[in-house]
Amino acid sequence: MKGIMVQGCTSDAGKSYVVTGLCRALKNRGYRVSPYKSQNMSNNSYVTWDGGEIGRAQGVQAEAAGVRPETFMNPILLKPQKDSRSEVVLFGEVCEAMSGRDYHDTFARGKGVEALREGLKRIEERFDAVVIEGAGSPAEVNLNDREIVNMFVANEADVPVLLVVDVNRGGSLASVVGTLELVGEDRERVKGIIFNQFRGDLSLFEDAVRWTEEYTGVPVAGVLPYFNDIQIEGEDSLSINFCHRGGGGIEIGIVRLPYISNHTDMEIFRYEDDVNIGFVDENGPLDRYDAVIIPGTKSTIGDLEYLEQRGVAEKLKTFRGSVFGICGGYQILGETLIDDEGIDFKAGYEKQGLGLLPLKTYFHPKKRVAQVSAEGRHPLTEGMTVTGYEIHLGRTDLTDDSAVPLWSIDGHADGAADADLRVGGSYLHNIFHNDTFRALWLNQIRRKKGLPERPAVDTAAIKEESYRKLGEYVETYLDMDYIIDLIEGRESER
Question: pTM of the entire structure?
Answer without folding.
Answer: 0.89
